[in-house]
Amino acid sequence: MKGNVLIIDDEEHLRGALSRILELEGYRVFQAGDAAHGYPVMEQQEIHLVITDMRLPGENGMQILGKIKKQYPFSEVIVITAYGTIQDGVQAMKSGAFDYITKGDGDDQLLVTVERAVEKARMQRRILDLEKKLKTRYSFEKILGQSKEIRDTINLAEKVAPTDSTVLLEGETGTGKELFAQSIHNASAGKNKPFVAVNCSAFPKELLESEIFGYKKGAFTGAMADKKGLFEEAHDGTFFLDEIGEMDHELQAKLLRILEDQSFTRIGDTKPLHVNVRIIAATNRDILKEVQAERFRADLYYRLSVFRIRIPALRERTGDIEEMANYFIRFYALKTNKKISGMDPGYLEHLKKYYWPGNTRELKNIIERTVILADQEILTPDLLPYEILSASQDPVNEDFDGTMEELEKIHIRKILALSKGNKTKTAERLGIGIPTLYRKLKKYGLE
Q: Is 178 exposed, middle or buried (0-12, 13-18, 19+ CB in 10 A)?
């Protein structure tokens, strides 16, 4: 079925003829002789398009148009009349009509207009559904866990969300800092405005600067046109700076200015731009230690840490593992079309004993892997990888008989945990470069 159409016209034979034409084209058509009979149809059915005559007994077409656009903004309205005037047409379009058509203009024109109007209505509903799903996905209700640690953290986030205060989220890699940032944004006054995110560790200094602040045409080789920065894109909304501890000192100074007076200058420009942006920053580093080591500006730290929220590591709230595991099992069972109803006690016990350097993200990856491997309805310990089966504070022991890659993966997990998720420290301890570490984290699913 192409869509639902309601025709409101007091001329029964015209109403019936138009209904038959539209039904032959694949539309589901409802009829009403006036507004009084049309409104109940709108209440009971999902109507994509209303076609209404201008002159009707009782309420006229313009009055019907006004009420429908107010009560059902995602339904389109086409006004038709036998006595068309330019003035009426202009008024109808200004009032929100999709189109204004004079009777006798031809069925072909009407069918094309109906198709476009129904498609627009369907698209508006799809966008609305996606927005609702997105807001549901990124909300405090979707953060799993009932432990005191995570509930206290959520309570803090809920309190700061309605304000415009800058927030600093602290926590290890994989604890869900971006989920918290999104949830804070979606519970704020600017929830319908942009949420723009950037990972400060993912770009070299020069590229990160141009991404954040934008540039003027000719500012450097390759700058062929003006480019908006992410701060401009986030105007009236939220700008999320992930891994803020990795930001270069020069960029830190520019960020400080934005926090102080909400202004910045594009690369190659002299005119400052003003924005209204809420900043949420996140880091897996101990920023105070970074300040003491003069790797992070103290003045920027105090600006960013107006409201600090520390997100607990998964090993600090092991009581939540069962709930989270069951959620991920249901999710991946549905995704892979498998009948998996749960996990046996031994499987859960191994999950609780493990130290989870990759936190929630790692748990999610492990569950996905075991669901894919499972041939039975209950997940059992034999499906788990070696490092979880042999879980302890030092997972590598003399009984290890796996491959070199498995050993490397276990060792990287251990060092990542000892470094509390800090990738720079992890790379230093392993004696490898940051790019090499990122490749290995991706290879082993430890991102």
A: middle
The sign of the CA dihedral 280, 285, 288, 292 is: negative
More confident residue, 133 or 403: 403
Q: In which residue are the tokens 């520390």 written?
A: 310
Task: Report yes or no: 363 and 317 within 8 Å, Cβ to Cβ.
Answer: no
> Which of 84, 112, 135 is the last residue before a domain boundary?
135
DSSP 262: S
At residue 309, does pLDDT exceed 70?
yes
In terms of residues, how long is the chain? 447
**Domain assignment of residue 66, given as a range:** 4-135
pLDDT band at 394 (very low <50, low <70, confident <90, very high): very low
- pLDDT, position 281: 96
The region of weakest confidence among 30-34, 254-258, 398-402, 430-434 is 398-402
C-alpha–C-alpha distance, residues 258 and 175, integer Å: 28
Q: Given CA atoms 280, 284, 289, 290 in this order, what sign does their dihedral have? A: negative
Q: Which long-range contacts (CB under 8 A, 24 or more apart) does 101-109 make?
A: 103/14, 107/21
Which CATH number covers residue 105? 3.40.50.2300
pLDDT-above-70 percentage for the chain:
93
**What does the pLDDT average to over 308-324?**
94
How many separate domains does the chain show? Answer: 3
DSSP state, residue 168: E
> How is residue 205 written in tokens?
């200094």
**Residue among 285, 185, 186 at smallest CA distance from 239:** 185
Whether residues 285 and 235 share a domain: the answer is yes
Assess whether 73 and 159 both reside in one domain: no
pLDDT the model gives residue 395: 44
- At 156, the amino acid letter reads L
* DSSP labels, 26-67: T-EEEEESSHHHHHHHHHHS--SEEEEESS-SSS-HHHHHHH
Please report the DSSP string for 198-226 in residue order. EETTSS-HHHHHHHHHEE-TTSSTT--S-
240-249 pLDDT, tens digit per residue, is 999 999 998 8
pLDDT band at 397 (very low <50, low <70, confident <90, very high): very low
Domain CATH code at residue 400: 1.10.8.60
Same domain, 92 and 51: yes
Last residue of a domain, one of 103, 135, 167: 135
Q: Are residues 343 and 325 in contact, defined by beta-carbon separation less than 8 angstroms?
A: yes
DSSP state of 293: T
8 A C-beta contact, residue 366 and residue 321: no
Residue type, 175: T
